[in-house]
Structure formats: C-alpha cells, structure tokens
Q: What sequence folds into this?
C-alpha cells in the first residue's frame, strides 16, 4: 500500500518506488469549484519543494500548485487537457497532476499524514 | 387550460426549432449574423471600382473571407433585437459598486459628434486644430483644479492604463534618483488592476491588511515600509466605501521612507468639488472619465484615464505634452527640451479625445457648484440605502459610508442562499445586481453604489425589493434563489462548460460526411 | 441640475432617515481642513444651450477633414461610416451598459462581441480573437509581452515598417516590464530583413503590413525564419480595410496579429478612442490578454454567451494576470462589427478595392508633378512621396491654401534628416477626383 502525504497548501503526494505522484486534495477541489483547466509543468523541468509547479483554474479562481517535494518532472496527466473535470470527481486518484523523480526522500518527513491533514482541514472550517 | 393558453403553448411548441429559439413577446431570439448569410448581399451600396492595374506587389488576397451578407434592415433588426436583451443605465438603477454607473447624458454624444471634433486627424498641422488643443487644455485645467494637483497626463486610455502610467512615472523618478526599489504595497481590498499593474511594471506586490474598521492598518503599513518600497497604491474612498481618514499620516510615512503615494481615483465620485486629494499628500492619481465624468461604459469600454501628477513626477509624464505657447498651445511629441525625462509613449496619438469632449460637456453642465451637489447626492443616496437596509442586510462596517456601501453575506447565513443567488434573484425584480464578491476582504461581498442620479422613489423601490428578497431568503425559499433568474432573456449560463471547451467564434458547420 | 433627481424635500427626508443634519456631516471621516466648505473657484453649471455654444465655438476653430481635400493616414484613416452604425452604437442598451458580468441580462453585448471576435478571426485569417484592447499601439505591446510569456524569452525585434507610435509604446513597456527591444531603423524602401537579427534569445519579430510608409510585403519567409529559431511572428495591421484586398497575416503564418480597428465603424476623432485588434492561433488562446466571449448554453438548453477564460485576467489572477487591462474598447468594437455586418463579404472587398483604386489614381496624378517621386513598389491606400524639399514646410504651405496633404515623416522622426523630404499620403473611398486634382495642382504650384 503506497503511503500518501499531504501539505497545508492542499497537495497530496503518493510515493511509488522512486517516483512521487502529486495532485490536489478533495478538499481543495471543493473550494475551487468546477475545474476548467490545469497548467502543468513540462516533463524534464526541475521543481523545488514549496515552489510553484503549476496552476489550477476554475471559472472564478486560479490557484497555484506548489511542489510538495523536489524533483524532476517525469510525466504529466495528459487526460486533464481533455477532461479537467476528473480533478473534481477523483482528485486523489484519476485527477493526479504530475509525477516526479524524487530528489530527496527525506523531504517527505515534514509532510502531514492522512490523519494530520484531516485534522488540519477540520480546523479551517 | 383555457383555449387561449392552449393556443399560445401550441404556437410556442411550433416555434421551438429544437435549438431553444423561442421568442418571448418583444424579446426576439436572434441568430448570429453568420447564420443569416446570403452570398453577394450587402447593406452598403458602393459603386463598382474602376478597373485599374493594381500596385499591390502581388499581394492580392486569395480565397473567400467568409463574412456574411445582410441587408441594412436585417442588420438594424439584428442589433436592435440584441440590444433589447441588454440592461443599461437607461433601463434602471445599475448599482455596481466602484463602477459609478451614472447617467450618460446625450448632450455628450451630440458634442462628440461635431465634425470639428470627430473629423479631425491627430497629425494635422497644429494650426488647423487649435480648438481641439484648447479643449484638451480646458479639461486638463478642470481635472487639476478638482484634484488640487499641478500637472496631468492626459493620454492613458483607461483606468488601468492610468495606473500603469502613474507607476511608470514613479519607477522613472526612482531611477532618476539612482534607486532600484522592488516592492509596492497594495491593500488587500484593492481592485485587481492595482497588483496587476505593479507586476507589469516589474514590482513585487506586498499586501497590507485592513484593520477592523475596514481601512488600511496604519501600523501594519508602517511595519512594511522600508528602503526597498517604491510606492503604496491606495484607493480612497476605498473599496469598502470608506474614506481612508489617515491619508495624511500614510503620506507622511510613505514619503518619510522615500516612497511615492499613488491613489486609485476610481471612487472620486464621492469627492468631486469637496475634497482635493492633492491636499492630502498624494503624488499621482488616475481619474476614470467613464466613471466619475459620465462618459459611457459602452458594454465595457472605451474609457479614459488621465493621471494627475505632483511636481516630483510631472517631468516623467508620457508623451505627448500639451504646453502653453504664447496665446495658444504646442504639442511636444518627442523626448526633448522640457520633456526630456518623459517615460515616452504609452499609446498611439494623443489620447481619448472623444471622451474628453464628453467629460467636458458633463463638467460644464454641472459647473463647480453642480459637481459638488452631485458628489453630495451620491454620498447621500448611498447612506440612505445603508440606513434603510442595515437591519435586514449585514453592513460590513458602521457608517457613514461614502458613495458606496458594503454588505456581506452574514445575513444569508444558514439560508442556503449565496450572494450570487441573491444577485440573480434581483434580476427578476428588474434590477442589475450590485458588485458581488468584491472586495475580497469580506465574505460574499455585496457592494452597492446608487450614484447621484437616482430619485428617492427609485431608491425606495430598490430598498423595498432588497428587503423583500432578504426576507424570502431567511424564510427558507432557497430553491427559488438557486434557480434565479427566471425572467431574464437567458437563465443561468454554464460558465464551466464555456471555460472547459472554449468556443470563441462561430465556425462554418462541416459538410455532411457522405451524401 | 437637470441630471439630479433628488429634490430638497427628498434630501431632508433622507437625511432624517440617516440621522444626519447635513450632507457635509456624512463626510466626517475626511480631515476637516481638507473638506472644502464652498464650491471651487471654477465656472458654474450651464444649461444645455450654453454648453453647446461653448463647445461649438471650440469645434469651429478646427479644420475638419471633410471640409477640405484631405489625405492623411499614418495609422488612422478617414472612411465613410454608414448612418446605421451610429444609430446602433447609440442605442441606450449598448451605450449605457457595463462589462457583461451578469450574462443573463447582457446577451446583446455578449453576442455582438462573439460576432466581432469571429469577424476579426476571419478577416485576419487567424483562429481566435479577443474582445478588443485600447488601440493598435498598446495591442502591439501586449503582443510582445504575450510572445515573451510563450517563448520564455525577452528580446523583441521591431521591423522598420512599424508605426513609430507603436514602436515607442513597445519600448516604454519594455523598459518597465523588463524586456529588450531591437528596433530596426525606419525603412521607406521596404528592403529591411529583420530575420538577420533573430537568435536564440528572440521572442518575436514584429512587422506591420501595410507598413507605415505604405508598402505591402509578404512576410511568409520571415515567419519561417522566426519559427526555425523558436520565435514568433507578430504582424501588425494599422489599416483594417486593407484586409479586404491584401493577403492577411494568417496566410503568412503569423502567430499573433495586433492592430488598429478605427477604420471600420469609428471616426478618426483626433486620435481616440480607437480600437485595439488582437488575434492569435488556437494553441495560444490561454495566453491572450483581454476579455474573451465564449459560447455556452443556459439552464434551459438555449445557446448563450459568457465572458470566459477569466482566470487569466486581473480581477482573478491579480499580479499574475496576462495583462492589467480591465476596460476594453467595447463600443468601438460594436461600431466595427456593425459596419462590417453591413458591408458583408462583397461590400468589404469592394470597399478595399475602391480604396486601392483611389490611391492608384492619386499616385498617378502626384507622380506627374515635377520633382515628386513615389518611393513604394507596392501600396494599398497609402504611399510615400519623396519631394524636392522639406515635406513639413510643403504640408504647412498647402494647409494654408486649404489642402491637408498628408503627414510629413519628420513629424515622426525629427532627428532623421534623411527622411525630411518624405510625405506619407493616403487616399480612401472618401476622396473625389476633384480633390485629387486640387491636391496635385496645389503641390505643383508649391514646388515650382
């Protein structure tokens, strides 16, 4: 079972081997409303932890996506171009954004686990 | 059903062509121009051009362009029908906060169309356009006098363009001092053009929070000032409809840090003839002629955004400059002589002259006394709305307000009705909604600006309807609000679909694949 | 005051409701010494007749283009606008409405702009257009910044045929926005090839067609050079009527089109308000500045229109917006659209042909004046004369004789003596043969 970690800026990271799969959380998509477009980083680009990786747009808002961990972009979810709605219907599954080659696995240690993220979100209400 | 209603509904079913086109009384469904094409038809008669050997250098266009052909009556009907689906100031109260939807006098339109203004080329010899130059100067004089500022850049094409002009002048002034400051302070309640403008100019934007009273937190501002701050961009009255009473203290603090004070003049309608921002220490301010000075909004533009400037910034003003020359005027169009330090051009030609004529007609019609009366009535109307609605809507801040009043959605708490839903229900009642969800510092903002032109009877009707809607929301009629508007030419439109699969133009439908 | 609906009785009642004694009391947040207690020392209000007289007096001190033989162009052109256009733009529902943020009650504006976007895409030969910018100069600056965003480069090359006001505006924006401009010198001979300057830092090359000196060129080869280096080609069109006869930017592989739409549906108006045109290819859509109208449907399934892709704009993205623009040139775009709707395909192409024929007729007459040479190998409705003496003095002399002869190049480039004998001359469908004869005769007389 792969371990999922979360950030306070509402991204999730799922580690699969030396890769990290990244997206935004279900809570984030409810806040955004209907997602209309996702601006994804290009494969090959080096992302730095906590720096901007892309943008997710709804009709009335645009939110930066921050890289939860550092690494080189290996793949992006091409399906989002045709069907951005899957970010709303399955944010933490089929609505993934991009995959990174993990540069430093220790960065995961500072992220929230599922229980901690849930508590964090409850505190926001 | 009676026979009559059966007949009506039967007719409606026949008229429904399956793509939703159904007339409703005087509101007539209108296809696109491209769907009414007859090849070769035209609404303009031009003679056959003489057969000449062309001198196009072989660059003749090939192939059809694809423009549709309609006759003049068809085009007139087309646009008349379209116009009937639009709400305008001419229709009723248009209480959009910070937009100043005041009456657009028709005298303005008549004056702008005088051939002596409309049929002039900007590059004609100056001796042939003396009246136009005098007009620009007369308006410039009024704007400087109303704001208490010594100089004005007339060329910016709109408010946001004026903001850019002002920030470029500030940047140039700092460069001339040999300083490279990187940060601009912008209140969280600011209009989006402020940070966008600062970023266009290469600045990083640092937000200043509002205090509990809805005004800029002076202590927070002071804490953020430093040698790397180029300017503050303030709006006063601010977007909560409140006068920033600490403007002098803000000016002192900002100047003390070597920075400049830019004022967003979008809300000048509260101050015309009563307060001169120049007396409060500002360095630059844009005016929106299409807000405060009644030039028409025209469905989104054109605007005009002259920028008044302090002495410290005047020499950086964009080209062209209009200067007195004997008993006439001279246009300076190049960076030389007294204009050597100009930031250069920020648009073509001289500025939005057509809007200058309109604004001057408005100003001359009111005069100093009338402008003062107008700003007073604008503030009176807004406060009347506040006083009449504050028990049933939630005002974000205690009064008095200036020319606009801010409510938030606390009064809708637990009703299941959002600010958006409330606004859509106002449409059914014959009103254009107020500004929604702006400023961002309160939740579900409703920003109401009646302007000075509304009659008391009109305001009373507006107030009564707002009360009634608030009561209905609290009484649990959420479903009604969720499905509003019901009576407008269109129901709610699917903005998600529009953004996911953008269709930004008509395209000729593909031919059938196989016959 | 005739625009104010409140009576003194109303004001009294309203003040009582508010609980204030006077309107001045509502200004209590203003420092008392900054609150003026009487009207400023400026003229008092005037009735409509008095205002008309005052403004008509100012207007009468100008020489209107229609009152004399008139041959100026240089980025704004005198065309005949059908009476129906002015009627349409003055309908109160168009004139007095705001940006269509409540689409349910703004379908008039939205559909008209959707049609305008389509018309502009068609005449430029591009895929998609926006709902207008301020003018040609700022549209060009926006095109440069869009190219910078798309290529992630910062060097913009300006061709020698670009309108100098546009070039200067781009240079101003470049200075403050942090990109560099390489401007080719003015190119009356239309021989300049900016391709030689393209390198790996170039974001775009901006050229104008027809150029400021009037020449018409094919920039297809330039587009290829740009694309090979990963740069974009921006084609500027300052005379929209030219698109009825001249090969459009879309057929030259342009990536972005910026331009001036005043020629259709709008008066010259001493230079403003004008109409910034902007169009591009589908795959660049999301980097476009300005408003965009898109098609959708409502809750009853009926086709309708909304502003869309708004997340690019300042009111949402704030400092990360594609542009700071808010107000566009909507009413001018409506005039453009209505004029083009009236013209249709046959009327538009015919109008363009009439313009070219007028310019050819004028060129023939002027070429016959001793000492006068036409510099252009090609032109649409504007060309450049080389005179045997300083053009500015000739223009002033002719103006005194009641002929507005054109724009001397020295008006744009006072520091380039090599251009001082050049005169930019335009002819449109509004010029009669008699006026052309008049011009030629006056010029001949002046140069004797």
A:
């Amino acid at each position: 079972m792969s371990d999922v970690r979360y950030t306070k800026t509402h991204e999730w990271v799922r580690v699969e081997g030396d890769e990290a799969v990244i997206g935004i959380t279900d809570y984030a998509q409810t806040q955004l409303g209907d997602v209309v477009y996702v601006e994804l980083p290009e494969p090959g680009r080096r992302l730095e932890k906590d720096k901007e990786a892309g943008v997710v747009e709804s009709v009335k808002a645009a939110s930066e996506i921050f890289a939860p961990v550092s690494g080189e972009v290996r793949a992006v979810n091409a399906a989002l171009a045709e069907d951005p709605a899957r970010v709303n219907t399955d944010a933490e599954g089929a609505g993934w954004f991009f995959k990174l080659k993990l540069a430093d696995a220790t960065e995961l240690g500072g992220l929230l686990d599922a229980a901690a993220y849930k508590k964090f979100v409850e505190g926001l209400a | 059903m009676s026979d009559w209603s059966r007949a009506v509904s039967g007719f409606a079913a026949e008229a429904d062509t399956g793509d939703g086109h159904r007339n409703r009384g005087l509101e007539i469904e209108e296809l696109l121009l491209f769907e009414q094409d007859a090849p070769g038809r035209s609404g303009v008669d031009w003679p056959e051009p003489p057969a000449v050997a062309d001198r196009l250098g072989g660059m003749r266009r090939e192939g059809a362009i694809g423009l549709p052909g309609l006759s003049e009556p068809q085009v007139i009907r087309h646009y008349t029908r379209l116009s009937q689906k639009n709400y305008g100031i001419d229709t009723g109260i248009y209480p959009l906060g910070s937009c100043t939807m005041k009456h657009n006098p028709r005298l303005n339109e008549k004056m702008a169309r005088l051939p002596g203004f409309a049929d002039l080329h900007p590059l004609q010899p100056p001796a042939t356009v003396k009246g136009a130059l005098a007009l620009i100067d007369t308006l410039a004089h009024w704007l400087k006098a109303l704001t208490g500022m010594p100089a004005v850049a007339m060329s910016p094409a709109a408010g946001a363009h004026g903001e850019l002009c002002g920030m470029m002048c500030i940047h140039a002034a700092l460069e001339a001092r040999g300083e490279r400051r990187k940060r601009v302070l912008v209140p969280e309640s600011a209009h989006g053009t402020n940070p966008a403008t600062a970023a266009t100019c290469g600045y990083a934007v640092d937000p200043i929070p509002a205090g509990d009273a809805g005004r800029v937190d002076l202590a927070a501002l002071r804490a953020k000032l430093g040698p790397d701050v180029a300017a503050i961009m303030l709006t006063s009255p601010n977007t909560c409809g409140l006068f920033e009473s600490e403007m002098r203290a803000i000016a002192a603090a900002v100047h003390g840090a070597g920075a400049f004070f830019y004022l967003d003049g979008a809300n000048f309608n509260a101050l015309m003839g009563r307060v001169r921002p120049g007396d409060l220490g500002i360095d630059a301010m844009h005016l929106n002629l299409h807000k405060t000075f009644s030039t028409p909004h025209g469905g989104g533009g054109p605007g005009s955004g002259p920028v008044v400037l302090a002495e410290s910034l005047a020499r950086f003003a964009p080209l062209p400059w209009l200067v007195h020359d004997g008993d006439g005027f001279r246009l300076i169009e190049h960076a030389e002589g007294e204009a050597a330090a100009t930031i250069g051009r920020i648009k073509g030609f001289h500025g939005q002259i057509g809007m200058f004529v309109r604004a001057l007609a408005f100003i001359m019609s009111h005069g100093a006394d009338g402008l003062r009366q107008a700003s007073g009535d604008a503030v009176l109307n807004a406060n009347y709305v506040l006083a009449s609605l504050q028990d049933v809507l939630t005002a974000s801040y205690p009064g008095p307000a200036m020319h606009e009043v801010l409510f938030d959605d606390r009064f809708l708490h637990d009703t299941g009705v959002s600010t958006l839903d409330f606004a859509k229900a106002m449409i059914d009642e014959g009103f254009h909604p107020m500004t929604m969800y702006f400023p961002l510092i309160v939740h579900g903002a409703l920003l109401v600006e009646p302007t000075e032109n509304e009659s008391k009877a009109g305001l009373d009707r507006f107030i009564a309807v707002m009360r009634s809607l608030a009561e209905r929301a609290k009484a649990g009629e959420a479903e009604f609000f969720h499905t509003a508007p019901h009576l407008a030419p269109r129901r709610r439109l699917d903005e998600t679909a529009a953004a996911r699969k953008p269709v930004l133009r008509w395209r000729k439908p593909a031919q059938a694949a196989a016959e | 005051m005739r625009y104010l609906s409140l009576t003194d009785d109303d004001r009294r009642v309203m003040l009582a409701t508010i609980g204030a004694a006077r309107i001045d009391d509502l200004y209590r947040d203003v420092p008392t010494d900054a609150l003026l207690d009487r009207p400023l020392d400026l003229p008092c209000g005037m009735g409509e007749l008095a205002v008309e007289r005052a403004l008509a007096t100012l207007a009468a001190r100008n020489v209107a283009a229609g009152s004399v033989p008139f041959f100026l162009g240089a980025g704004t052109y005198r065309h005949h606008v059908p009476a129906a256009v002015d009627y349409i733009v003055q309908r109160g529902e168009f004139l007095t409405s705001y940006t269509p943020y409540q689409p349910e009650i703004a379908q008039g504006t939205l559909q008209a702009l959707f049609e305008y976007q389509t018309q502009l895409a068609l005449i430029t030969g591009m895929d998609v257009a926006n709902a207008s910018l301020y003018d040609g100069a700022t549209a060009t600056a926006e095109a440069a910044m869009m190219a910078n965003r798309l290529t992630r480069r910062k060097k913009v090359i300006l061709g020698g045929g670009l309108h100098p006001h546009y070039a200067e505006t781009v240079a101003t924006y470049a200075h403050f926005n942090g990109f560099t401009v390489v401007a080719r010198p003015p190119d009356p001979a239309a021989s300049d090839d900016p391709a030689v300057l393209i390198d790996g830092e170039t974001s775009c090359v901006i050229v104008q067609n027809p150029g400021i000196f009037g020449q018409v060129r094919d920039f297809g080869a330039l587009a290829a050079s740009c694309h090979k280096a990963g740069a974009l080609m921006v084609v500027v069109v300052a005379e929209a009527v030219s698109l009825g006869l001249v090969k459009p930017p879309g057929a030259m592989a342009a990536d972005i089109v910026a331009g001036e739409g005043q020629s259709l549906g709008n008066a010259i108006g001493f230079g403003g308000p004008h109409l910034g045109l902007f169009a591009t290819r589908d795959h660049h859509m999301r980097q476009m500045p300005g408003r965009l109208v898109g098609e959708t449907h409502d809750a009853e399934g009926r086709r309708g229109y909304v502003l869309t892709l708004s997340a690019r704009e300042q009111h949402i993205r704030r400092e990360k917006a594609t542009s700071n623009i808010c107000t566009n040139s909507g009413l001018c775009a409506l005039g453009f659209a209505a004029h083009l709707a009236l013209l249709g395909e046959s009327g538009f192409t015919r109008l363009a042909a009439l313009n070219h024929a007028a310019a050819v007729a004028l060129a023939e007459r002027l070429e016959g004046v001793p000492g006068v040479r036409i510099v252009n190998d090609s032109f649409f409705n504007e060309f450049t004369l080389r005179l045997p003496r300083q053009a500015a003095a000739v223009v002033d002399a002719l103006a005194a004789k009641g002929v507005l002869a054109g724009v001397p190049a020295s008006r744009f480039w006072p520091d380039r003596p090599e251009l001082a004998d050049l005169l930019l001359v335009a002819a449109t469908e509004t010029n009669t043969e008699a006026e052309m004869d008049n011009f030629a005769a006056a010029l001949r007389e002046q140069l004797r």
About this structure: Residues 171 and 230 of chain B are 7 Å apart (CA to CA). Chain B touches chain C through 209 residues (CB under 8 Å). Residues 1-20 of chain B have pLDDT under 50 and may be disordered. The longest strand of chain B covers residues 229-235.
